[in-house]
Amino acid sequence: MSAPETIAAVHCLAPEAGVVRIDETSDLWWKNAVVYCVDVKTFLDFDGDGCGDLPGLTQRVDYLAGLGVTCLWLMPFHPSPRRDDGYDITDYYGVDPDLGSLGDFARLVRMARDRGLRVIVDLVANHTSDRHPWFQAARMSRDSPFRDWYIWSDEPGEQPAEVVFPGEEESAWTYDEEAGQHDLHHFRSAQPDLNLANPDVRDEMVKVIGFWLAMGASGFRVDAVPFLVQDREHAYELLRSLRAFMSRRFGEGVLLGENNLPPEEQLEYFGPYGDMLNMQFNFVLNQAMHLAFARCDPEPLERALEVLPDIPPDAAWANWVRNHDELSLDQLSENERDEVFSIFGKDPDTRIYGRGLRRRLPSMVDGDERRVRLAYSLMFSLPGTPVLFYGEEIGMCENLDVEGRLAVRPPMQWSAEQHAGFSPPGTRQLVRPLCPGYEKVNVADQRRDQDSLLNWMERLIRRRRECPEIGWGRATRVPCQRGVFAHRCDWRGATLVAAHNLTDHPVCTTLCLDDLAEGDQLLDLLGDADAKSAESPEVQFELPAYGHRWLRIRRAGQRVLP
Ligand code: NOJ
C-alpha cells in the first residue's frame, strides 16, 4: 500500500489499525454500514396503549446510536389490518395510527440523522392488503380503472411453482365473489398481487418511493423481489427504472432486495452495471452458515463462499444471523435441511412451512453464549454488510406460544420491570405476549455488566465499522485446521484475517499468510492480546471451543495515528 501524503487526507480506521484511505468511498455508505431492523410495533410503547410506536423508537435513538448501528430498517408501519403483521398495506402514504403519525416519522428521521443514523423503510410493492381502496375498487367492476391494478383470471390461472405459505394457503389463486374472478396472490389470500406490468401501478410505486425519500428515508428494503413481475426481463426493467428514479431524487439512496435465489441468479439483479439493486440479502451464505453451525464444521460455509460471484464494486451483500421471518433453509438439500432440523429444530413446533425454523439463535444453541458470540463474530466478518434484528444484541429468544413467525417478534426487553419496560406499568394488554425470561435477559441489566452480550456486541459493531476491508475487500479462504473457518479480506493494502472455531473443543490452529513480511505485525482486534511481530508466514494460535479471533496485519512502516 502506498502511504498517504497527509494524515489529514484520510480517515483512520482505528488508532492501532494503520492508515487506509476511505475518503470518497464513504459516499457508498451501505458498504460499511451496520443495519438494525426494527418492528416499530414491538420496540417501545411510548403512549401506553400496549403497542410500540414511532415516538417510542425515537426515545431509543440514543440507545441505537450508542450501540453503534448506522442505519435503521423499519418494517412496515403503514395502516394495515395486520393479516401479515403489516406486510399487508392499506395506505402506502400513511402511518398506522397505533404507531404514530407522519409528523412522528419526520421527527424520528431528524433525530436519527442528527446522530449519524440513516433510516430505510420497507417497500412492499408486490401486493397490497385486500382492504386497500385500490383492491376494493378493482373487485367492484370489470370496468373499474383499478381492475387492471391486480391480476385476474376466470379459471385459477397458471400456478406459480409453490405457494409461499404452505399449510396456510392451498393455492395462489382465490375466487373473489365480488369480482367474479380469481385473483393471484403469492402470499396470503388477503394480500392480492399488484399488477406491476401496468404502467399506472409502476407510476404509483415511483410516487411511493418519491414520497418516503421526501420524508427523509435513505432508501428501501425491497420486499419479495422474485415475485414482483413474473418474467425476469420485465423485473429487471422495473428495478432499473425504480433505481434510476431513486438516484435522481436522492443520490445516496439504497435499494436492499429480499431476493431468496441462488447467488448466480441474484447477480443478475445487481444489474450488469450495478444499476439495479444496490444490496441483496445473501440467503445462500446464511443457510450454509446455519448448516455449518449444526455440523460444527465449516465446510458448507467454505463451499458457499467459494461459489459467491463477484458483484459490481458499488454493490453489497447483506448478511444476518436471524431476521423477522422463519430461518429459511430452502436452498439446502433435503438431507441438509433435515440435519439442521435434527439439531436446532427437534421440537416439531419450532418448524414452519416445511422449510424453516421459527426460533432465534440463542434458543437454538441452548443459550450457549460462546456459540452466540461465534455466530455474530462470524457474520460480521463475512463479505458484506451486517444486519441485526432488534433484540439480537441482548440475546432475546422467541415465544413459541405465539402463532407462526410472530413467535420471533416479541416486544423488546428493556428491563426486568413489568412488561419488560416495553410498555409503562399498568398497561392492560401488549400488542404481543412477552418472551418468557425477560427478567434475566434485558438491556438494563446488560448495560451494567461489562462482560454482557450487549457490551460485547457494541465492541463488535465498533470494530466492524473500523474494518472497511470486510465490506469493500475481496474475501478469500485461508487454509487451516479442521473445524476452523479462516478467511481474509484484502482492500487497498489493508488486510483483516478472521478465524472461527466451530467445534466444541479448543483447536491449535496455523494460518498460512504468504504475504507476511519481516516487520509486519498482527493486531488482535477483538481480544486483548498484545500486537505480535510476524516471525514467519505461518501464524499459530489456540482458539478455545467456539472461539473467534480477528487479526489485522499492520505492514512494516504503516503509519499509525496516536
Ligand atoms: C417478506 C417479508 O419478510 C415477510 O415477512 C412477508 O410475509 C412477505 N415478504 C410478504 O410481504
Overall description:
The protein has helices at 54-59, 61-67, 102-114, 133-140, 199-214, 232-249, 263-270, 283-295, 299-306, 334-344, 361-364, 369-381, 443-448, 453-465, 468-472; strands at residues 12-14, 18-19, 35-38, 71-74, 118-123, 152-153, 173-176, 181-184, 219-222, 254-257, 279-281, 316-320, 327-328, 351-352, 356-357, 385-389, 474-477, 484-491, 494-501, 507-512, 521-524, 532-533, 538-543, 548-554. It has 562 residues and is α/β, with parallel strands linked by helices. Among the domains are: 29-124 and 411-440, Alpha-Beta Barrel (TIM Barrel), CATH 3.20.20.80; 133-184, Oligo-1,6-glucosidase, domain 2. An eight-stranded parallel beta barrel has the order 3-4-5-9-10-11-12-16, surrounded by five helices. Strands 17-18-19-24-21-22 form a six-stranded antiparallel beta sheet. A three-stranded antiparallel beta sheet has the order 6-8-7, with no helix packed on it. Helix 5 (199-214) packs parallel to helix 6 (232-249), helix 8 packs across helix 10 and helix 12 (369-381) packs parallel to helix 14. The longest helix has 18 residues, at 232-249.
By secondary-structure content and strand pairing, the structural class works out as alpha/beta
Outline the low-pLDDT stretches. Answer: 1-12
Biggest sheet architecture: 8 strands, parallel, barrel
Number of strand segments: 24
Number of helices, counting only DSSP H or I runs of 4 residues or more: 15
Adjacency order of strands in the biggest sheet = 3-4-5-9-10-11-12-16
The first-to-last residue Cα distance is 20 Å
Mean pLDDT: 93
> From the 3D coordinates, which CATH architecture of the domain at 29-124 and 411-440 would you assign?
Alpha-Beta Barrel
Q: What percent of residues are in strands?
A: 15-25%
Please bin the fraction of helical residues.
Answer: 25-40%
CATH topology of the domain at 29-124 and 411-440: TIM Barrel
Write out the distinct hetero groups bound to the structure.
1-deoxynojirimycin
What is the CATH superfamily classification of the domain at 29-124 and 411-440?
Glycosidases
CATH class of the domain at 29-124 and 411-440: Alpha Beta
